[in-house]
Every structure is written in structure tokens, then in C-alpha cells.
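Re: that backbone. C-alpha cells:
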């Protein structure tokens, strides 16, 4: 009989989704005796609530990001929202029960705190002996992850493991595997082929500008600043699902004095990172882990308060990235790095030293061993 693994995340094309897909891929690479189901938990249990939460979240981080910072990992907010979360879990219990009873998983893996809490609460109320694994995809172990009924946590670093133990999680339930990323980031790529395919000049530097799955952040300001530099380099921009941003950048292609390529959401980020000289991005956990795997220097731009600021704090404390304080200074900082090869090479070295490209495989191995 095949081992059934239920994977749960929130929001399609998000970092949580990519992590879930990476683990799913690793499970199948590890064993032919595996059956998986990958579920967007918000959409499955309450599609109306998913739309409300996603719309509200995007509105808050665009208009009042400091408010999100206040809500994120705030002990008072955690306490005050406990009853609300209990109510949501109760409302979702029937659909979750139907899912678990119909699929009959041997284990559940959650790459976001909401489904992890929902399943942990369900386990407790049903007195269910179902292995539950929580996978943290940011260097920010907020209080919404803490549950007694989670059998094990996979975390990005030893520092995060220490923070979880300080919140009462037993150390033998925590594994420092790194953030799960697709195994393609561990593959060696033919750079010359990628340059030819994209129509880029292999002799010139490439600046990769990314705005995450939603294409948020000061991408226009950063790009405008890059154009003011005299240094000859090429620019690749990935704007995610932001259609307005995609239209704006497409208009810049003919105007730009530098070679410019524009993408929306892509599934070949590994190729883009392979040929990039510098990454300019918001500091999402998955993006950071992918850049580490490629030994790519990271320039952080406009982190939102909350998980992105905590990721930034981690990177800067370990000297693994450079922060661009003002988007208008992006060009200056990039130019300085391109001229200072020693600094650039040191950032490459540091990134590689923090890389855990086999993270998804390590997680898959642990899960399969636990249910064998």
C-alpha cells in the first residue's frame, strides 16, 4: 500500500506553495511508493474567506505596512485572536474531516501556520494519532506556529530552532533542514545556453530585479535608479502576478538604455539566478533560500514589517546581504558592488555557505522514515 502524504499551504504561487511543491517533488523522487495531495487550505475550507484575507493583506502591505508589522508576532494580538481562530477552526472542521477521511493520509505536512494550527486543533479534538509536520519558510518563527500537537518542525536555521525551544517546543521535535526549495536549484546549468536562449550578452553583468509573487515593492523606482548608472549591465525584471507593473515595464523595453527583459510569474527562476550577477529583491524566505543555493549576492529592497523585516534582520546580522535603504540609491549600490569585485565575491561566498539546496530532500526523507 502506498504511503499517503497530505500537503497543505495557503495562496497559489506563494512561497508557501512553492515550498509545498518542492517537498512533494522530493517525496516522489525518494520513493515510488508515495501518493500525495497538495491542497490550498484556505481555498479548500473557505474560498470566500481566502479572497477576503488575500485582498485585505495586499491592501494593508501596500497602504499601511507598519500595521502588518504591529499584527505580526504580537503576543497581545495572538491572545486576542485566539477565540477568532478557534471559531475559524470549528467552522472548517467538517471540510477538514471530509478531506482527511477521504484521502486517509499517513502524515500531514503544512508549509504555513494557518493549516498547521487547524490540523493541530483537529487532532486534539478528535484525539487523532496523525503525524503532523510544520515547515517554516521564513527566518521568523512567529507565535502562530506554536502547537502541542505538531510532531516535528523543520526550520531554516539553528537560530530559529533556538527561538522555538524558547517558546516551549522540545528540541527533539525541531530539525534544522533549511527552507525547502526545488531540487532544480541544486542542478548545474549551462550558462552559455541560458544566455543564448534569453538573448543576453554573456560578457556583461546581469542584475535580476524581483518583486515576489505579487510584484509588490518599489520596482519602478529601483529600475529608474539603475538606468541612471553609467556601468554597462543587463536587467531582468520579474513582476509576479502584478499586471499593471508588467505593462509598465513592457513599455520601458524600447526606451531603456540597458538591455531589459520582463517576466511575470515564471517557473525558471533557477535559470535566471544561474546567470545573474546580483539579485535585488524583497526578502521572502523562499527567494533567499534559492539565492543562497545559487551563491547569488542579495540586495534587499523595501522589506515590509513582519516576516520580511525579520528575514532582513537575520541576513544583515550574518552579513549575508546588503540592504538598499532608499530605492533611489539602487543604482549607486549596484555600481559599487560591480566595481568592488572583492565585496561581490565575498557575498557570493557567504551565500553559498548558508545554502541548503537539499532541504526538501532532507524533509522528505524524515517524513518517510517516520511513517515507514
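Recovered sequence:
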Amino acid at each position: 500500500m502506498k504511503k499517503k502524504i497530505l500537503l497543505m499551504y495557503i495562496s497559489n504561487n506563494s512561497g508557501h506553495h512553492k515550498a509545498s511543491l518542492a517537498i512533494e517533488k522530493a517525496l516522489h523522487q525518494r520513493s515510488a511508493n508515495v501518493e500525495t495531495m497538495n491542497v490550498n487550505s484556505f481555498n479548500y475550507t473557505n474560498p470566500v474567506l481566502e479572497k477576503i484575507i488575500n485582498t485585505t493583506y495586499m491592501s494593508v502591505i501596500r497602504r499601511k505596512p507598519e500595521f502588518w508589522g504591529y499584527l505580526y508576532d504580537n503576543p497581545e494580538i495572538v491572545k486576542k485572536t485566539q477565540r477568532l481562530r478557534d471559531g475559524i477552526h470549528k467552522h472548517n472542521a467538517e471540510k477538514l474531516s471530509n478531506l482527511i477521511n477521504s484521502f486517509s493520509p499517513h502524515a500531514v505536512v503544512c508549509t504555513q501556520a494557518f493549516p498547521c494550527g487547524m490540523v493541530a486543533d483537529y487532532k486534539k479534538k478528535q484525539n487523532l494519532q496523525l503525524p503532523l509536520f510544520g515547515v517554516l519558510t521564513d527566518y521568523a518563527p512567529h507565535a502562530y506556529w506554536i502547537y502541542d500537537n505538531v510532531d516535528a518542525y523543520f526550520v531554516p536555521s539553528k537560530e530559529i530552532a533556538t527561538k522555538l525551544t524558547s517558546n516551549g517546543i522540545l528540541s527533539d521535535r525541531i530539525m534544522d533542514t533549511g527552507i525547502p526549495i526545488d531540487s532544480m536549484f541544486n542542478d548545474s546549468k549551462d550558462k552559455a545556453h541560458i544566455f543564448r536562449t534569453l538573448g543576453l550578452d554573456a560578457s556583461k553583468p546581469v542584475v535580476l530585479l524581483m518583486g515576489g509573487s505579487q510584484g509588490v515593492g518599489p520596482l519602478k523606482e529601483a529600475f529608474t535608479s539603475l538606468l541612471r548608472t553609467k556601468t554597462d549591465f543587463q536587467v531582468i525584471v520579474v513582476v509576479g502576478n502584478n499586471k499593471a507593473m508588467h505593462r509598465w515595464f513592457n513599455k520601458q523595453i524600447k526606451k531603456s538604455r540597458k538591455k531589459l527583459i520582463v517576466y511575470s510569474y515564471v517557473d525558471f527562476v533557477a535559470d535566471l539566478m544561474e546567470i545573474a550577477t546580483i539579485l535585488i529583491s524583497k526578502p521572502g524566505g523562499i527567494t533567499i533560500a534559492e539565492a543562497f543555493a545559487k551563491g547569488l549576492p542579495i540586495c534587499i529592497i523595501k522589506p515590509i514589517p513582519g516576516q520580511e523585516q525579520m528575514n532582513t534582520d537575520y541576513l544583515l546580522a550574518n552579513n549575508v546581504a546588503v540592504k538598499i535603504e532608499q530605492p533611489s540609491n539602487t543604482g549607486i549600490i549596484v555600481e559599487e558592488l560591480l566595481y568592488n569585485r572583492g565585496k561581490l565575491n565575498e557575498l557570493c561566498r557567504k551565500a553559498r555557505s548558508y545554502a541548503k539546496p537539499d532541504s526538501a530532500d532532507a524533509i522528505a526523507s524524515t517524513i518517510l522514515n517516520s511513517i515507514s
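The chain has two domains: 3-181+358-371, 188-353. The two ends are 11 Å apart (CA to CA).
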